[in-house]
Design brief:
five-stranded parallel beta sheet, alpha/beta, six-stranded parallel beta sheet, 15 helices, Beta Polymerase, domain 2, Rossmann fold
Length: about 525
Amino acid sequence: MQDLNRNELVCMIGTDHGLAPAEVRSAFSLPADVREDVLALARAKLGATGVVLLATCNRTELWASFDGVAAPVRSLDEHGAPKSDDPLLRVICEMHMVDPAQNARYFATRSGEDAVGYLFQVACGLRSAIMAEDQIVSQVKQAIAYSREIGVADGVLEVLFRQAVTAAKQVKSGVRFTRAYATAVDQAVALLEEGGMDLRDATCMVIGNGEYGRLAASTLVECGAEVFVTVRQYTHGAVTVPRGCESVPYAQRYEHLDRCAVVMSATTSPHYTLERDKLVAACGALEGLTLVDLAIPHDIDPEIASLPGCALYDIDSFATQIGSENAQAIEAAQRLLATGEREFWDWIDRREVMAHAKPPMGSLFPLFVDLSEKRAVFVGGGTIALRRVRTLLPFAGEIVVYAPEFTPELERFADDGAISLVYKEYDPSVLDGADIAFICTNSNEVNDEVWAECKRRNILVNVCSDRFKCDFYFPGVVQSEGMVVGVSAGGKDHRRVRQLSARIRRLLEEEDL
């Protein structure tokens, strides 16, 4: 569509292994316990409708969508690189508490078609430190899933990331690359063996029992090594130790080092898992100890590399280059990715056509409806459903939520008799008797299926992931002493709705209306 500026629809800013060394990238690692708050703040500061943080050991990228709202004015140099006062650069640097002026040179930014094409390449590993590696596609999928879970994703980013993952899977199943290694762990093992180390019957320790730690342990076991995996004593729930490995308490890791030939560390800890002084105190002289740091930020104190008898490798030691032998594979991959990109933009264009076929969003009529004898059906039991159920509770006569699992607060509402929960996957029968429907699942396919069934039955429907599939929009609601105020921006500017709702709420409190 001519009136759609693709460059203002979606953009990203980030750093990766090609722009910054590992010690610099460590500064852009965000602790999990603050990620939800800073992402919500980033979306608010940018005025974005959705944000996603793609953070791996090789890259940190902030993605933002401005679906129907004004994108911030960018500050870029003549080469398209971000200046220190660029809004996206300021936000991502504030998220990680670093100085934009000192770090601008480590960042690249893309928008519109460039950004979309780049994400598709990232998802299938063409932008990875290890060419066509296998881990990145799941990391892309996890990034959008997290934003969806905490409520900062939007329909554009949902579809973009989903289609990038789909295209990446098609590349992995349909294109054969000439490569020796699928992951950094494979590359690390190869590097050790090329250096003359025989891992058969070698004693190895893996620090970290997350996804990458378990992968490292399993790979070493396959090489014939004797493997110990550290386990933190305060870990909640069941701890999975890979088959063929023994566990040792994390607190006792130094005590086992003098018997190890190799130590691999892969945690998300913001602190060193091995420190130079503690290593020397526990083991004294070391001979032939090889340490592999697979984490960003660094797990292993870089000063250990200066100790006699120690060899230390970090994640940047395992980068591979795309060789000419893969030229045909790359061309085949690019054709598949180009198809996926076209499908994404076709979806965007179809939405634009639908938007122009409807009355302008500003023409929405603010009708207040009595729901006290109506049946409201929710499909999906996550955080978005929870927020809308919580708002609807004072108004609806019957609220029924269908999902295979629910948030604890929804379960508490059900225990109190305020709502009904039905533990089941969606099928058309859940809409029987529904007067109004709220579609809140994390699957666009399911959301589309429920929407189509609602349209067939003439049920008023709101789809949380697509404002163009809504018969009505869920307003900001302010209540005070029998007075109800609803605020809507036509499903577009959620930030403005929140701000105006808060101002109205303060006014009612101050005036005691």
